Amino acid sequence: MVPLQAGFFLVFLLFGLAITALWVWVSYWVYTDATDRGMDTATLWAVVTFVGGVIGLLIYILVREDSSASQTGSP
User: From which residue to which does any coiled coil extend (predicted)?
Assistant: First the structure.
């Protein structure tokens, strides 16, 4: 039974690492998106997204500034 238990542990370990890597990437995307939009709180939004998961990401998407509103120049 030991090899079977070790196999499940490896699967769960890889799954956990994949989920963590996904949220690191999503947090980085939020940081770069907020920076591109000229938001001063880009680091805070990256942390909120990483800690809050899907809920943090949804809050960011709902609250973020419109990219056309932050640009200056002709319409």
Answer: none
Residue 30 inside a domain? The answer is: yes
Residue 57 CA to chain centroid, in angstroms?
6
Quote the pTM value.
Answer: 0.75
Q: Which residues contact 33 (CB under 8 A, 6 or more apart)?
A: 64
17 belongs to a structural domain: no
Q: Which residues contact 28 (CB under 8 A, 6 or more apart)?
A: 46
Per-residue pLDDT tens digits for 21-50: 999 999 999 999 999 999 999 999 999 999
Matching residue, tokens 């989920």: 19
Q: How many domains does the chain have?
A: 1
